[in-house]
Amino acid sequence: MMTVKEVSNLTEVSIRTLQYYDKIGLLHPAHRTQAGYRLYDDAALERLQQILLFRELEFSLEDIRKILKNPEFDREKALEQQITLLNLKKQHLEKLIALAEKIRTTGGNVMDFNAFDTQKIREYAERAKKEWGKTTEYQEFEAKNARRTQKESGSINEQLMGLVAAFGTLQTREPADPAVQAQVKKLQDFITENYYTCTKPILYRLGQMYGAGGEFTENINAAGGEGAAEFAQKAIEIYCR
User: Fold this and answer.
1) Maximum Cα–Cα distance for the chain, whole Å?
2) Cα–Cα distances in Å, from 111 out to 102, 104, 119?
3) HEC per residue, 182-194
4) How far apart, in whole angstroms, are the C-alpha atoms of residue 241 and residue 198?
5) Residue 125 burial by CB count (10 A; 0-12/13-18/19+): exposed, middle or buried?
6) Which of 167, 175, 177, 181 pairs as cysteine with 232 (C-beta 3.0–4.6 A)?
7) 137-240, what's its fold?
């Protein structure tokens, strides 16, 4: 096991970035100490390596998150795609270097703009994103959402926010209390019925997002009262164990 500081030193990824990856569900530590410190195992480091390769290829964090949580994700095939993309980038850089050297040799009288063409790289990257970026859950959500009007979708989103905000009224109880856990089950069932099949791993990630801070947390707390989002996160964590 490695601490977050050790991982940062090894990979040159900042501690703040590793903490952010944890918050958005991109890279969770394998364990936490009783004091709350993050610990990473070999599997987490392999996932980080995948993330860094995709980042090197200029994939967005959201695209990477979708790719890595795809249940059909094939690590070996993804690696082949990454190698292909890296070779395309290498060829592109070699053309730019050759152009720069030619400009230096001729004193600047070179009208060649082909070296700046990155169309092949963009096209291949888009194919990779389309192949890996849509999870089964996302496809299920798209199919359900396509049958709704904008007003119906808005109403369902409001109901979902209401279910999460309702945890604010339950804060007088313990997160493990049966009534609180029943609310978690109600939330899970609602998501499954109206969005996508909400397994416990997916629900856990949603809970982490609810309490991670930022706009989502603020909206939940605004609707359910101070601490509603963080309480919902704790209740969901217990339910998902």
Assistant:
1) 79
2) 11, 13, 19
3) HHHHHHHHHHHHH
4) 15
5) buried
6) 167
7) Globin-like (1.10.490)
For residues 76 and 60, is the Cβ–Cβ distance under 8 A?
no
pLDDT at 166 over 90: yes
**Concatenated DSSP letters of 133-196:** S--HHHHHHHHHHHTS-HHHHHHHHHHHHHHHHGGGGGTTS-TTSHHHHHHHHHHHHHHHHHTS
- Tens digit of each residue's pLDDT (9 = 90 or more) over 100-159: 887 788 776 666 666 666 777 777 667 666 665 555 666 676 677 778 887 887 888 889
Does position 28 have pLDDT exceeding 80, yes or no? Answer: yes
In terms of Cβ atoms closer than 10 Å to its own Cβ (0-12, 13-18, 19+), residue 84 is middle
CATH number belonging to domain 2-56: 1.10.1660.10
pTM: 0.49
pLDDT at 31: 87
Q: Smallest Cα–Cα separation from 233: which of 202, 212, 218?
A: 212
Do 73 and 132 form a contact (C-beta atoms < 8 A)? yes
Q: Which two tokens stand for residue 71?
A: 């249940």
Place of tokens 């791993």: 201
Computed on alpha carbons and rounded to an integer, the radius of gyration of the chain in Å comes to 23
